[in-house]
Amino acid sequence: MTSTELMPIPGQVDPVPVARDITPRADGRQDLIGLPRDRIRALFEYAGLDTKQAKLRAKQVFHWLYHRGVTDFAAMTDIAKPMRPWLAERFVIGRPDVVEAQHSTDGTRKWLLKTADGHEFEMVFIPDADRGTLCVSSQVGCTLNCTFCHTGTMRLVRNLTPGEIVGQVMLARDALGEWPKGKMDFAAEASEAEYTADGRLLTNIVMMGMGEPLYNFDNVRDALRLVMDGDGLALSKRRITLSTSGVVPMMERCGEEIGVNLAVSLHAVTKEVRDEIVPLNRKYGIEELLSACAAYPGASNARRITFEYVMLKDKNDSDDDARELVRLLKKFDLPAKVNLIPFNPWPGAAYECSTPERVRRFSEIVFEHGISAPVRTPRGRDIDAACGQLKTTAQKKSRAERDREAAAPAAV
Ligand code: SAH
Ligand code: SF4
């Protein structure tokens, strides 16, 4: 059993950029999931293989791990028989533990998962007619205390590792029975290979589960590289969207080093309201955020930036708010689409969802100005799987604690 101590809790909007190292497994074996080819090769060399052998075996094992999804070295049929127990003595092929799997009446599935050191987090699968989206977590908890978000009431327990992040996608493929059954010549595919979505359930990934992905950038990047690798999970970057509450200094690197679609949790158009509901706004204001969006590498009319906007009754949902949203998006000349999210309630939340008429009117105003603004249908509400409802029992903050924090000046 491995263990990690809790991370120190930083100020209200300050990041914890580096994950605490996971302590090694008691049996001395190393989990390969989350490691890229060259790390696997280096481990094989360290364990005694010569350079040429290590390189070949690493290539083969990488393919079995990430492209074929095998969880047992014995199933790696193109690796010499005596070599398989040699690998199994030294390495493991991990998956997050499943604590509970729930099924919503609308087909949405939610998994409560556990890290090897005992921290719980969640992932959600949302099937639609033409696609299936996996909502992946990047942290256990979140440092940012957005007031409408259930995850925001948790402490940040720790960053998830690359293995725990890519492990969610792998677990979903296990559960959906979706690993390719083909031969080894799959490996010949180019690394930019377009993923064939035909007939698949899991076609898209959104980094919109628990946590702020840009405060765990390195691990999210390393995990997504395995997801995008043509000989790995082989999902195109066009099918991956990363959502940020607005960590401006990391946005350019996100575009350059990962190149996925960007979603920005805007949620308000005035400093006053955004400061309140997305406290990170006190550090990186709206104008600064929108400038960073305008400079986002890869954004274009064909690949628009999604602006998420949670509809909170009498808070951010007036006609004036809608008009100001249009003005801002036009001012920065952003290739934008707006995603209106009806507020999903959770116990103790201080907000109500805007009325359906209000949401419709808001959407119309934005749309009349040439910007698409669909209303997202809430999914999986009956199992608390909808946006912002994710929360595990670990490390709850008491109401009094939260009130104290809200009263204190922001640590910016
Ligand atoms: N931390 C990142 C990604 C996770 S949240 C971010 O904030 O962007 C995914 C989306 O759900 C965000 O847009 C978030 O603001 C939104 N959300 C959070 N709580 C919500 C709630 N109660 N109802 C509706 N949407 C919510
Ligand atoms: Fe964290 Fe995103 Fe929730 Fe804000 S909305 S508290 S950034 S998970």
Order of helices and strands: EHHHEEEEEEEHEHEHEHHEHEHH
Number of strands: 13
Mean pLDDT rating: 87
Low-confidence stretches: 1-13, 15-21, 183-197, 394-399
Quick one: overall form?
A: elongated
Could you give a short account of the major beta sheet? Answer: 9 strands, mixed
Provide the gyration radius in Å: 22 Å
Task: Summarize the model shown.
The chain is an alpha/beta fold.
Description:
The chain has helices at 37-46, 51-67, 83-90, 162-176, 217-228, 248-258, 271-277, 286-294, 319-331, 356-368, 399-407; strands at residues 30-31, 91-92, 97-103, 109-114, 120-127, 132-135, 139-140, 158-159, 204-207, 240-244, 261-265, 305-311, 336-342. The protein is an alpha/beta fold and 412 residues long. Strand 9 (204-207), helix 5 (217-228) and strand 10 form a beta-alpha-beta unit. Helix 4 (162-176) packs parallel to helix 5 (217-228). The chain is elongated and about 70 Å long. It starts with 29 loop residues before the first strand and ends in a 5-residue tail after the last helix. Residues 142, 144-146, 149, 151-152, 211-212, 245, 265 line the site of iron/sulfur cluster (SF4).
